[in-house]
Design goal:
Structural class: little secondary structure
Number of helices: 0
Order of helices and strands: EEEEEEEEEEEEE
Number of strands: 13
Helix content: under 10%
Largest sheet: 4 strands, antiparallel
Distance between the termini: 43 Å
Strand order of the largest sheet: 7-8-11-12
């Protein structure tokens, strides 16, 4: 059995991750009389709430339940929320619902629009594969704002607030060029998501002299920093680089950070490192330990189907072979405290991923997000 709590545990609090347990409940703070929370594949029923539960509140994560509704706070009369593949219809709202608000997560619905707050006259939001057109805005729409998520549209630009003169944003496979910025653009800022561009750099704020950021498959080298760079800071996302280190702030003498498959060893720390702290992301390392803060005398977490974490659960999340989380994540590979590494992921914000999603970036074969991302191969990743 398994229980998990935040703060004082209610007398009837239970928390479970897995496939079709006979019953499941999970709570935060005082539990409503009718609160139940389940993550898995097609339980007969599911409800989940935060705070006072609306009379018609139900929350489900899985594949193709017959119906689904989910709410936060007072439920609009026409609020429904569904996560899955190709439900017949879908709508979801937060606050007062515009007359033409619809929200859908899935593959190729015939049409889709989604809004937050007052809807611009030309706002449309679509999640799926290759709709004929797509636009999405938040606040006043720039005259040249277009937003598209999919496979190889002829062009793509996306902005938030006032658009820089040279801002373009693209998600897809191998566009000829790509740049994306937020705020004042550094002279050498470029941002790309895709497969093997010849070069890539990405920055936020003033760029360090040696800052480079690449998303893709197997660039010859990779480094990424935020703020003052330690003398030995390197950051890499990909498959089996010979070595890897990544730091934020002052680097401990024994800090190493790796994301990938089967490195010989791996350690990662944040703040003061416990004497026995090691952190690994990947498949089948010979051993694995990971801690945040002082290490508990023991830590072992089991998920549904009898599958275990590689070794441990961290204070900020779970490291598991099979995980379904409290925010709607349904995964078949790995979910970590700083992010997800998954084979299949469906989140409360609408992420559907068929390969990988990491804490500091995404490695995705297919992604559909709550903000409209649908990416056939979105690699915030690299390999040497």
């Amino acid at each position: 059995d398994f229980t998990a709590f935040y703060g004082r545990r209610p007398s009837d609090f239970t928390f479970f991750y897995g496939l079709r347990p006979s019953d499941f409940t999970a709570f935060y703070g005082r539990r409503p009389s009718d609160f139940t929370f389940f993550y898995g594949l097609r339980p007969s029923d599911f409800t989940a709430f935060y705070g006072r539960r609306p009379s018609d509140f139900t929350f489900f994560y899985g594949l193709r339940p017959s119906d689904f509704t989910a709410f936060y706070g007072r439920r609009p009369s026409d609020f429904t929320f569904f996560y899955g593949l190709r439900p017949s219809d879908f709508t979801a709202f937060y606050g007062r619902r515009p007359s033409d608000f619809t929200f859908f997560y899935g593959l190729r619905p015939s049409d889709f629009t989604a809004f937050y707050g007052r809807r611009p006259s030309d706002f449309t939001f679509f999640y799926g594969l290759r709709p004929s057109d797509f636009t999405a805005f938040y606040g006043r729409r720039p005259s040249d704002f277009t937003f598209f998520y999919g496979l190889r549209p002829s062009d793509f630009t996306a902005f938030y607030g006032r658009r820089p003169s040279d801002f373009t944003f693209f998600y897809g496979l191998r566009p000829s060029d790509f740049t994306a910025f937020y705020g004042r653009r550094p002279s050498d800022f470029t941002f790309f998501y895709g497969l093997r561009p010849s070069d890539f750099t990405a920055f936020y704020g003033r760029r360090p002299s040696d800052f480079t950021f690449f998303y893709g498959l197997r660039p010859s080298d990779f480094t990424a920093f935020y703020g003052r760079r330690p003398s030995d800071f390197t950051f890499f996302y990909g498959l089996r680089p010979s070595d890897f280190t990544a730091f934020y702030g002052r680097r401990p003498s024994d800090f190493t950070f790796f994301y990938g498959l089967r490195p010989s060893d791996f350690t990662a720390f944040y703040g003061r490192r416990p004497s026995d702290f090691t952190f690994f992301y990947g498949l089948r390392p010979s051993d694995f330990t990971a801690f945040y803060g002082p290490r508990p005398s023991d830590l072992l977490l089991s998920t549904g189907l009898g599958l275990m974490n590689l070794r441990l659960s961290t204070g900020l999340g779970l490291v598991t072979l099979l995980l379904s989380t409290g925010l709607g994540l349904v995964t078949l590979l790995l979910s970590t405290g700083f992010g997800q590494v998954t084979l299949l992921l469906s989140t409360s914000f609408g992420l559907v991923i068929l390969l990988f999603s990491t804490g500091f970036g995404l490695v995705i074969l297919l992604l559909s997000t709550g903000l409209g991302l649908v990416i056939y191969c979105f690699l915030r990743a690299s390999a040497s």
